[in-house]
Design goal:
alpha+beta; SH3 type barrels; five-stranded antiparallel β-sheet; 41% helix
Length: 129
């Protein structure tokens, strides 16, 4: 091989190596960690499925997991559908209004806008939403 053909192949080889280390290897590592987590599931573990459903593991079969979504409501899922194990600190917190911020009533805003529009147009008929 002469230097010209080696010079044209070298960028292609470097591109393949870069793709391997930046894309393929990290993805394979994430897949292995996910399979390891799914195989280590035990009853009583809080999990989140890949679709965002929070539940508790009741039993683990070969490739299936029975999850309890609410007390007395159990569903069967494939292990691959378990996205992550939820620790108590990861649990979703319900949005509560902050005491310092006033909560505006949407109905009051709509009524006020209707009154403003009626006075602009001079129309006293009621508007339907």
């Amino acid at each position: 091989m002469d230097m010209g053909s080696l010079g044209s192949i070298l960028p292609l080889v470097l591109l393949v190596v870069v793709f391997y280390f930046l894309l393929i290897r990290p993805q394979r590592k994430r897949q292995q960690e996910a399979v390891k987590m799914q195989n280590s599931l035990t009853p009583g573990t809080r999990v989140m499925t890949t679709t965002g459903l929070f539940a508790t593991v009741v039993t683990v079969d070969n490739e299936d997991v029975i999850l309890e979504v609410a007390p007395g409501i159990e569903t069967r899922w494939v292990k691959a559908a378990i996205g992550r194990v939820v620790t108590p600190g990861d649990a979703p917190v319900e949005d509560e209004p902050v005491a310092d911020e006033p909560v505006a009533d949407v109905a009051d805003e709509v009524k006020t806008e209707d009154v403003k529009d009626e006075t602009k147009n001079g129309d006293s008929s009621t508007k339907q939403s």
